[in-house]
Specification:
Endonuclease III, domain 1, 15 helices
């Protein structure tokens, strides 16, 4: 899902930083020259070409990726911004169809689905919400629901009692305080039971078109792995990463990072050998680098498997993605 929190290398030039031989006393001293991380990547045409080809192949792991170009320990702020934005551009080519992976038809369905997604997969939520929304299509309906009946529907998502209290509670607040409509302001959304910054920005970014960064577990893992920030607090991560990108890119950035984390850059064994941004990644080599073995680690459409949405966008299907099965078929 995309949008803010609750739930964006170069290499040094081959002679960069190297001093010339010690001059004679009267000879002028040749100045030491250093090539920045980003400039080095630009100068290295083969690395740039390799990255672009991999991205345009949308993560296909048929070609062995170039050796990773780890940034220097003292990467400048300008170099970091350039590297981060380049990663986002490459991922946009790999995942041009990236979208929120929760099925929804309106803001109410999205806010409920996002609350339910805590401590479970989007797939499980998508397999559960059709029955919930068929029985309780509006905030007023869910506000008046029998908690035991809702608990039974939500049981597959885990923590179903707490989630039942949250979705009934937020439905009552929507009905009583907001005229049955989901508000389009952050300060109002975070007042709803079960809704924090991540959920609020998911809703704002995907239901109202207002930019936000979704700091979920995948986003946190990848931005630290890429050395975009060393922060561990989601709010601080949100601020640090947001400062690297134009605000208009925040929602799509979140989609790109999360999709990459779910499909290629896994927590325990990232598929480094199938990664389209390997030359830009400081952590290249932490996972499987053999292309053939790495291909076997790819998930969802990148690995030839169904996705998480039962009703994905057409662009996803056109790219070879497959819908997820309903709950009774799983």
């Amino acid at each position: 899902m995309a949008a803010h929190r609750d739930s964006a290398v170069g290499e040094q030039g081959s002679d960069g930083g190297r001093e010339t031989e010690k001059p004679t006393e009267k000879a002028p001293v040749k100045k030491k020259t250093t090539v920045s991380a980003t400039e080095g990547a630009t100068a290295n045409g083969s690395t740039r070409a390799t990255t672009r080809e991999s991205a345009k192949a949308r993560g296909a792991a048929g070609t062995k990726p170039a050796a990773a170009a780890k940034p220097p320990r003292t990467e400048s702020r300008t170099a970091l911004v350039r590297r981060a934005r380049r990663i986002n551009r490459e991922l946009a080519e790999v995942f041009p169809y990236a979208h929120p992976e929760l099925d929804f038809e309106n803001p109410f369905q999205l806010v409920v689905a996002t609350v339910l997604s805590a401590q479970t997969t989007d797939l499980r939520v998508n397999q559960t919400t059709p029955a919930l929304f068929a029985r309780y299509p509006t905030p007023e309906d869910l506000a008046a629901a029998d908690p035991e009946e809702v608990e039974e529907i939500l049981r597959p998502t885990g923590f179903f009692r707490a989630k039942t209290r949250s979705v009934i509670g937020l439905s009552k607040m929507l009905a009583e305080d907001f005229g049955g409509e989901v508000p389009g302001r952050l300060e109002d959304l975070v007042k709803l039971p079960g809704v924090g910054r991540k959920t609020a920005f998911v809703v704002l970014g995907n239901a109202f078109g207002r930019p936000g960064i979704t700091v979920d577990t995948h986003f946190q893992r990848l931005v630290r792995r890429w050395k975009w920030t060393e922060e561990t607090d989601p709010d601080k991560i949100e601020a640090a990463v947001g400062a690297l990108f134009p605000k208009s890119e925040w929602t799509d950035l979140s989609h790109h990072v999360i999709w990459h984390g779910r499909r290629i850059c896994h927590a325990r064994k990232p598929a480094c050998g199938a990664c389209p941004i390997a030359p830009l990644c400081p952590a290249y080599g932490e996972g499987e680098t053999d292309p053939d073995k790495a291909r076997k680690l790819l998930k969802y459409e990148k690995g030839g498997f169904p996705g998480q949405r039962l009703n994905p966008p057409q662009a996803y299907l056109d790219a070879g993605g497959r819908p997820a099965p309903p709950l009774d078929a799983a």
